[in-house]
Amino acid sequence: MKNKKYNYIIIPFILLIVFLFAAYFGNQWYAEKFGNPGVDYSYIFLSFNTKVPFLAWTIYPYVIAYPFWAFTFIYISVRSRENMYKILTMAIITFIICGLWYFFWQSDVENWRLTSGLFLNNDYLTPRTDLNFTESLVMKIYQAAGPRNALPSMHTLMSWFCIIALRLDKKIPLNMKVVIWVLAIAIIVATQTLKQHYIIDTIAGLILAELAYWTLKNSVITRTFAKWIDSLNKKLKLEN
Q: How many CB atoms sit inside 10 A of residue 29's CB?
């Protein structure tokens, strides 16, 4: 049936969301609930960290990260089921690694956020009262996601997977390649200029994504996972 043409994307997309939210927001909740502030890694490449400016306007590419990742995943999936499974496997395994890392070796960027100039008297609990719209948007992001889960940067990880997807599908139209490249890089840069991450967080995210790409793109794990989801799709009658 025509209406089932792309139903094979449903389960992979749900799995992607579940593992992402469990790894990230699950650990955010745990850190806040049990008072686990984590480690401040600003001392790694400290000279670079201190030179990074705060640029409030970079919140705009940052806030579209989730819809951008979702769009890219669906776009790649529609074009190639094989590439969908490769990206899905890489993402889930790295999400598990990030989740375990956050749980056992939590990180903290509270002091980094204080350098944004959005707080009074260097007090994280006291935001300025004269924030403009863009600065207020940054503050909402700060408040929505605590200063935890910094190392490795999942925003960097996911954005780099979008770029890896371009490497898997070399026939993607040039205009789409440009859009994905520009937005992915803009989000990665924003992790720094919004004081959301130290540079080591971004480096770790990039390395983790590349390791996943080179070890999993043609692995038995990916093929086995693909067969399992295909079988599940048929059992659930999502496709013939």
A: 12
